[in-house]
UniProtKB/TrEMBL annotation:
The chain crosses the membrane at residues 123-144. This is Thioredoxin-like fold domain-containing protein. Residues 218-317 form the Thioredoxin-like fold domain. PANTHER family: THIOL:DISULFIDE INTERCHANGE PROTEIN DSBC, THIOL:DISULFIDE INTERCHANGE PROTEIN DSBC-RELATED. Keywords: Membrane, Transmembrane, Transmembrane helix. InterPro entries: Thiol:disulfide_interchange, Thioredoxin-like_fold, Thioredoxin-like_sf.
Length: 339
């Protein structure tokens, strides 16, 4: 058995290509007589006139024999001068006409593709680009409006909430022996346009998890409802975030207007344990029928509605940034680091 490692020579082929600028590349290595490679380009600008590919045939003189009497030629007229160039010669007229057909098909494809490109460029310029700019602009406006909001307006809402309900709720809860952390459940929001203007801190009813005495960028406030299935699922994210943040849960009664579980958790001696039990459906006995707890939940609900929230849980950073609805712990960490 013999092994041949020699590469077979490629079969010569006829080739017609039209380059992007309109130059026609010709090579008839299979059927051509001259077997030349040529490049033909139409005249452009002020010198442009007429150009055409055509098949020309000649008759041999009497008593003479000659091969390749058929040719593919290019006839052009530039600045009043007519020129005829023989691009390739062929032994038969059929070969010459086949070569002309290849040139015709290639030029046709080139013209059709150029028209399609021009149509797409026109569409993108007058329709596609304005639509993309509009869509991106609307998305940015919606994001800033729904997630970041107006910091100055948010400060005013927080100050109003503290004036109306926060101080009274804190006083009532302290009479029950409840301990509120120094950094309460409402963030100290700083207006970035006026760094000297620091919003007043409002004492809202909250349940603390995680680290103590953290700066605003490491503090989170979570509006949560014990009757909300999504809040039950989010509890594992709170446990995760409590490893690196100071997390204050602000109990609200958004689902069904049921204040009982949230109020009982606020009045319980073990607030964290009572909150976890409330998420599981249980009501703390030592905190049942607690008027101060109802007052705290009501204050939280008023602030929740002023902020325009319509779902739970919702997370707000101590810097005033409102995280996207349904954001998990991983996303909250990333966005908190960026802010």
């Amino acid at each position: 058995m013999k092994l041949s490692l020699e590469r077979n020579a490629p079969m010569p082929k006829d080739c017609v290509l039209v380059e992007p600028e309109g130059t026609v590349f010709l090579s008839f290595m299979q059927t051509g007589f001259i077997k030349a490679v040529s490049r033909t380009r139409y005249a452009s600008g002020d010198a442009a006139a007429t150009g055409a590919f055509m098949v020309s045939s000649a008759q041999p003189k009497d008593g003479e024999e000659s091969d390749a009497m058929h040719a593919l030629t290019f006839v052009s007229e530039v600045a009043g001068d007519e020129k005829i160039v023989i691009l390739e010669r062929f032994n038969t007229k059929d070969d010459a006409e086949a070569a002309w057909s290849m040139v015709h098909r290639s030029l046709r494809r080139y013209v059709v593709n150029e028209r399609r490109k021009r149509a797409w460029r026109t569409f993108l310029r007058y329709v596609g680009v304005p639509f993309i700019v509009l869509a991106v602009g609307m998305a940015m406006v919606r994001y800033l409006d729904s997630h970041n909001g107006s910091l100055e307006a948010l400060n005013a809402i927080m100050r109003a909430a503290g004036t109306m309900n926060g101080t009274q709720a804190s006083r009532n809860l302290s009479q029950q022996g409840m301990t509120q952390p120094a950094g309460s459940a409402s963030a100290t929001l700083v207006d970035t346009t006026r760094s000297a203007d620091v919003a007043a801190v409002s004492q809202m009813a909250s349940i603390h998890f995680g680290l103590d005495n953290q700066p605003p960028e490491k503090t989170l406030y979570v509006y949560s409802d014990p009757n909300c299935p999504a809040c039950k699922q989010f509890e594992s994210h709170i446990t995760d975030l409590a490893k690196d943040f100071s997390v204050y849960v602000l109990p609200v009664a958004y689902q069904g207007d049921d204040h009982g579980k949230a109020a009982a958790a606020l009045c319980a001696k073990d607030q964290q344990g009572a909150w976890v039990s409330a998420l599981g459906g249980a009501v703390s006995r030592d905190g049942s029928d607690c008027l101060n707890g109802y007052t705290g939940v009501k204050a939280n609900m008023q602030q929740f509605e002023r902020l325009g929230f319509n779902s739970t849980p919702r997370v707000v950073s101590g810097t005033g940034f409102i995280f996207p609805e349904g954001a998990p712990a991983k996303m909250i960490r990333l966005q908190a680091a960026e802010k």
